Amino acid sequence: SGAGAEAVLLRHLWRKLRASGPVTVAEYMREALTNPAQGYYTRRGGIGESGDFITSPEISQVFGELIGIWFISEWMATGKPSSFQLVELGPGRGTLTEDILRVFNQLTSVLSKCDVSVHLVEVSPKLSEIQARMLTGGKVQPNTEDKSAYMEGVSKTGIPIFWYRDIQDVPPGYSFYLAHEFFDALPIHKFQRTEKGWREVLVDIDPEVPDQLRFVLSPSSTPGTENFIQPEEARDHVEVCPEAGVIVQRLACRIEKDGGAALVADYGHDGTKTDTFRGFRNHKLHDVLSAPGTADLTADVDFSYLRKMTQERTTTLGPIKQREFLKNMGIDLRLQVLLQNSRDTATREQLLHSYDMLMNPEKMGDCFNFFALLPHHRLVQPESKSPLLPVAGFNELLLK
């Protein structure tokens, strides 16, 4: 039962806190989300109508189709290399990859001479099973020990798919990386400026209320305050996600070396927000410290931090609002076509409803952002070459 599991994780945290004192918010998030027995993702992965949050690909197939078009447009702009890898970090149920593969399949004539493969970076065994069913119809086999991929299969459209636990296991090569609602679930550290300098926000037992957790400030500086606060920081409260920094550095190194691009789509801000750590349960806000392991915990992505962490190995674009990106990608035209082709009122209403969810500033239109990493040469012109094509999504899409 949920309550039993809840109690187990809370007891485990409580013993840990009593034995070793307060823990960082990052350590708390790691336990609550990925504890092997009771973690939120390990146990359920609550995506979809019945879960704790709904993601854009679950709302509308158009979302994934436009992202597929973005990758093809970048592939064409860089001279149509003979092969590319589509690498998705944290692919959820596989809905987004499926929508992208549908577009690739519809554009077979364009991609006919290109060798396309899909590489999914997924730690959850439960989610990788769901992805395999959705993308291959169950035609997968586990890999033997000597391979970096732990599972492989073939998509319904005939494209090879590989599963990995870590981005470093993905083979090098010209690749398009996709991180949709991936960075927001990585553990963050929280910091507070005080008269005595920066202090880290920690999670501890509440001595007043048994079985409850509370936030406390570290009595002195911590490794986090020493390493993660930028000297020029102007805010008084800061959230930093070192893991996101590491992953972005890896992406930047790969793109610098092998070409391609990375597209990051997430809740976020450009270094302006302070306190964004929150929990969701049954689509409602949930206190982050209560019933650990039963709610999805997230924090807005600080794109200014990601930009710093690329260390100028790549060019970055954005963040721009989701509604601007999708508008630039031609969502309005796509909607018109789907509306014209739909036979019944129910389908048309569903299309309009999902368009509103994605584009309405009050819904996902403004809080969701797109951010890209591209090789410098994609935007900085060597002399006397043909003019560079604008980057779709961040400019209006020009389809020849």
UniProtKB/TrEMBL annotation:
GO molecular function: protein-arginine omega-N symmetric methyltransferase activity
Top EC category: transferase
Keyword Methyltransferase: yes
EC numbers: 2.1.1.320
Any one GO CC term of the record: mitochondrion
GO biological process: methylation; mitochondrial respiratory chain complex I assembly
Keywords noted in UniProt: Methyltransferase, Mitochondrion, Transferase, Transit peptide
Entry's localization field: Mitochondrion
Lineage: superkingdom: Eukaryota
Reaction(s) catalysed by this chain's protein: L-arginyl-[protein] + 2 S-adenosyl-L-methionine = N(omega),N(omega)'-dimethyl-L-arginyl-[protein] + 2 S-adenosyl-L-homocysteine + 2 H(+)
Entry function: Arginine methyltransferase involved in the assembly or stability of mitochondrial NADH:ubiquinone oxidoreductase complex (complex I). Acts by mediating symmetric dimethylation of 'Arg-118' of NDUFS2 after it assembles into the complex I, stabilizing the early intermediate complex.
Family: Belongs to the NDUFAF7 family.
Protein name: Protein arginine methyltransferase NDUFAF7
Provenance organism: Sapayoa aenigma (broad-billed sapayoa)
Taxonomic path: Eukaryota, Metazoa, Chordata, Craniata, Vertebrata
Name of the encoding gene: Ndufaf7
